[in-house]
Amino acid sequence: KQEVTQIPAALSVPEGENLVLNCSFTDSAIYNLQWFRQDPGKGLTSLLLIQSSQREQTSGRLNASLDKSSGRSTLYIAASQPGDSATYLCAVNTNAGKSTFGDGTTLTVKP
Amino acid sequence: EAGVAQSPRYKIIEKRQSVAFWCNPISGHATLYWYQQILGQGPKLLIQFQNNGVVDDSQLPKDRFSAERLKGVDSTLKIQPAKLEDSAVYLCASSGRGPGSNIQYFGAGTRLSVL
Q1: pLDDT tens digit string along A86-95?
Q2: Using the beta-carbon criterion (under 8 Å), do B42 and A103 form an inter-chain contact?
Q3: Chain A residue numbers touching B91 (CB-CB < 8 A)
């Protein structure tokens, strides 16, 4: 059974700092991995999708990496802004489209 | 392009009552998911449909939860009777436009409070 762990559970940083969020998974037989953002009271917004054959994906100030063999992914956020404050979730997907989510990291960026 | 629509946004019921949630996925998406998200946790898959067939319902408490996707488009999730521990946000997602694409798009969710 796939298990996904996200550490830390919460993170508070001053504005402008670069930061890394971690996601680890127990079964390396994945199809892809997806990072989401969730604002309070809202649904999930997809940030980045990394296929199992890829090492990283970039979108603006976000960079996600994947090391399938070690069961790890990181989400790097450059030059953090107060608007980045949210909960960040990673989901590991099988080729059948089944997703297993971590419990998320709640990020607070202080002005 | 319209997103995933869910209703209602909020629902408050007493335990042992029944409740139903509705989801309209993105047009053309063959795969539809229902998730339960308890406060402070990640979403947990309840059921996955491919068109109007069930792909995975292994974590659906079938003694009280049921779901259907008539005509492979809209879907409803029902709880009967509700328990206190069913208080959560119920998220609907869809995916599947294009081969090999399983990027999931989520609705805003229905927040259920069971008193």
Answers
A1: 999 999 988 7
A2: yes
A3: 43-44
pLDDT in tens, A14-59: 999 999 999 999 999 899 999 999 998 888 999 999 999 999 999 9
Q: Render the burial of A68-79: b for 16+ CB within 10 Å, e for the rest.
A: beebebbbebee
What's the first-to-final CA gap in chain A, in angstroms? 41
* Of B48, B89, B104, B1, residue with least CA distance to A46: B104
Angle among Cα B53, B58, B62 to the nearest 5 degrees reads 85
Pair B113, B19: CB distance under 8 Å: no
| A42 in reach of chain B (CB within 8 A) | yes
Picking from A34, A43, A103, the nearest residue to B41 by CB comes out as: A103
**What letter represents residue A3's amino acid?**
E
Q: In the beta sheet, which residues pair with residue B110?
A: B90
The whole-angstrom separation of Cα A89 and Cα A23 is 9
Residues A99, B31: C-beta atoms closer than 8 Å = no
Instruction: Classify burial at B97, counting beta carbons within 10 Å of its beta carbon; exposed 0-12, middle 13-18, buried 19 or more.
Output: middle
Chain B residues whose beta carbon lies within 8 Å of the beta carbon of residue A100? 45
Whether A32 has its CB under 8 Å from any CB of chain B: the answer is yes
Q: Length of chain A in residues, anyone? A: 111
Alpha-carbon distance of A66 to B79, in angstroms, equals: 38
